[in-house]
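User:
I would dearly like some help making sense of a protein record. Take your time, and here it is.
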Amino acid sequence: MSTKNQMHAAVIDAPNGLFRVAEMARPIPRTGEVLVRVKASGVNPLDLKIHAGQAPHARQTLPAVLGIDLAGIVEAAGPEVSGFRRGDEVFGMTGGVGGLQGSLAEYAAVDADLLAEKPANLSMREAAALPLIFITAWEGLVDRAHVAAGQKVLIHGGGGGVGHVAIQIARAFGAEVFATGSANSRAFIAQLGATPIDYEKQTIEDYVARHTQGRGFDIVFDTVGGATLDASFNAVRRFGHVVSALGWGTHALAPLSFRAATYSGVFTLLPLLTSEGRAHHGEILREATKLVEAGKVSPRLDPRHFTLSTIGEAYAAQGNRSAAGKIVIDIDADSAATR
């Protein structure tokens, strides 16, 4: 740990550059902010895109401290903060975009609205794995599509970060869940309580006929984008709802329109980039805490441990798809054991 009023942080100076661990001034929380002693930082595919300079929508100018998700302990509260106090264990999606300092640092001053109390039954590592993927899944299924008991929900990419949480949220709301994935993810998807669909072996027509008698799914949540979003328009039922977290391409809407179905996009970074809707992210994470503590949602973690000095290895593991779950970086020596 660095000296008082100072901290260590991993800094990236140029796209695809090496991380360097530097000592810098510890941030001071402003009005509405809390200072968090960061214990763990989750790694998302978006973090890699920002690092590579391939995410202009994230608006992060280099040099910068990256890291979107964190879990840690409140060190101090700034003016006009009433919901948190020193010693509280928290988690959130708090920075690493829009010019905001990220979580690859020993401390971060973050908007208190973005935080929630950490689930008591999760370690810091587990909690750091959840914010972005849970918020994305919740915004798609609950805020946009209003998932409900008895519905048939199809999750594209059910073995992925957002996908595996989306399965659990949909099931917690009483939906019957189906999820596409590779043959390697079949057992994991089934373990989560969803019916696995091998997209490499089954056509859209095949699984729509088999699982919905040709009517289509009530909700289709696309976490893959591209051609998978086009497939979603053909898998939804009449008056159903398609949601995508990656709807950035050019798509023909005719299949959706002929079904009188609805499309919604999810852009999880918007509150961080615009300051609008930040309190709702805190509300969503409080719902996450309830579901986790009730045993209805659990993140899948890669077992490897990385530190500030081995962030490059962590990013490489994320990039080469060798991870068996979410990769998390331990920001200090005892973060793996802190609960």
Observations:
- The first helix runs from residue 45 to 51.
- The radius of gyration is 20 Å.
- Confidence is low (pLDDT under 50) at residues 333-339.
- Residues 218 and 240 are 5 Å apart (CA to CA).
